[in-house]
Design goal:
single chain; 79% helix
Length: 393
């Protein structure tokens, strides 16, 4: 069975999300305490994608028309409750945790390469370095590394398969761990005081100005967020063209769009727009819609085409988890910041806010800022990794 109508595709995704949320609210099933609806949405849509339910031209067209448009609208709305002046106090801590994730991933890549090298094929070091660049800052860095390093085409396609499968599984696991954050935090004696201060301050501001949202508020906020999304993508394209003209092609359209919508959201958060009712509710609607769209393209069939590459990827993630746990024990890092930094590395600026906002809507800015940092240093990290792997090849 295949959905052959774009509207039916969107209707099915939103209906599935709505049914799962309604089941959690009205049935009180204990299964939702272990696996929250957001994870069920991701896993079920991955299964349906693998079964071929979404494999049609109409579905693909609907996905392309909505995914980025809703994603940038979501980031903007989530940032309306984010006071940058308070987030700035987390600057040093954010950078340290992000770099900790980058270093532990690097260790996983370098330690695992000699172990899996013979199973990955010939001349794979360039593709592996390109993948590491992607896992520090996003797909734009991976594309840049393809031009900067001798990347074999076959190895590159396998690296893409690894990237897709591991990212899909990883974001689902990070969302699953939201419910169990206290166990991690207690184990590492995490210091959540500064992070909680951001959330508390945001909640206090909202409570101070809390009003019942009307239809006018909803329509206004939806309209503003969608026009901001359209404007941001137009500006992102122009900035990308401008940067290419001065030799800074490493920053692609997606990165520049994310930077622009982030700056705009942070500025608007300090204006009366940041106190408009329905921000939290619309943030949740966008979040479930975007997660549903992303999961609907995450097939697990790539495991069959590049099994040892995927095993290598999960080995890297295992080293990453162990390394971050050790660092968290030493520096008392909480799971929210670690998960957000991890996805900011592996997924980029557009993905990290999804995990951050699963903890609290006011944390979205942390994910975006970490993702932007990754985009800036990803190419340098990829070149360094390439040099080390070439010596080992």
């Amino acid at each position: 069975m295949v959905i052959t109508n774009g509207f039916t595709y969107i209707a099915f995704l939103m209906c599935l999300a709505g049914v799962l949320l309604a089941l959690e609210k009205y049935t009180k099933w204990k299964i939702f305490n272990l696996v929250p609806p957001l994870v069920w949405i991701y896993v079920l849509n991955m299964i349906f994608c693998t079964m071929g339910l979404y494999h049609s031209k109409e579905v693909s067209a609907a996905y392309k028309a909505l995914k980025n448009n809703l994603l940038y609208a979501m980031i903007f709305v989530m940032l309306l409750r984010c006071d940058f002046r308070k987030l700035a106090k987390l600057g040093g801590r954010m950078v340290a945790i992000f770099l900790g994730c980058s270093v532990t991933l690097f260790i996983g890549f370098v330690v695992g390469y000699p172990i899996f090298k013979s199973s990955l094929g010939h001349d794979t070091w360039g593709a592996v370095a390109a993948l590491y660049a992607s896992w520090v800052g996003g797909s734009a860095n991976m594309a840049a590394m393809q031009a900067a390093l001798p990347v074999d085409a076959g190895a590159y396609s396998c690296a893409l398969a690894l990237d897709t499968v591991c990212y899909s599984v990883w974001i689902a696991l990070l969302l699953l761990m939201v419910k169990h954050a206290d166990k991690w935090n207690n184990s590492v004696q995490a210091d959540t005081s500064k992070l909680q201060a951001v959330a508390d301050a945001a909640a206090a501001e909202v409570a101070k100005e809390k009003k019942r949202a009307t239809a006018a508020d909803w329509i206004f906020l939806i309209g503003i967020s969608l026009i901001v999304s359209a404007l941001s993508q137009s500006v992102g394209t122009s900035l990308n063209t401008l940067l290419k003209g001065v030799g800074l092609a490493m920053f692609d359209k997606g990165t520049m769009t994310t930077v622009f919508v982030t700056v705009l959201g942070l500025v608007c958060a300090m204006s009366p727009l940041g106190k408009v009712p329905a921000v939290e509710e619309l943030s949740s609607v966008y979040l479930y819609a975007v997660v549903s769209l992303l999961a609907s393209t995450a097939s697990v069939t790539d495991l069959l085409s590049a099994p040892m590459w995927v095993v290598y990827g999960f080995f890297i993630l295992a080293v990453h988890v162990i390394g971050m746990y050790v660092l968290s024990k030493l520096f008392h890092w909480d799971l929210c910041m670690v998960s957000t930094a991890s996805l900011a590395n592996i997924g980029g600026a557009a993905s990290a806010p999804i995990v951050a906002s699963a903890y609290n809507e006011s944390y979205a800015g942390i994910g975006v800022l970490m993702g932007v940092l990754g985009a800036a240093i990803g190419n340098f990290a990829g070149l360094l990794c390439g040099y080390v792997l070439k010596m080992m090849a």
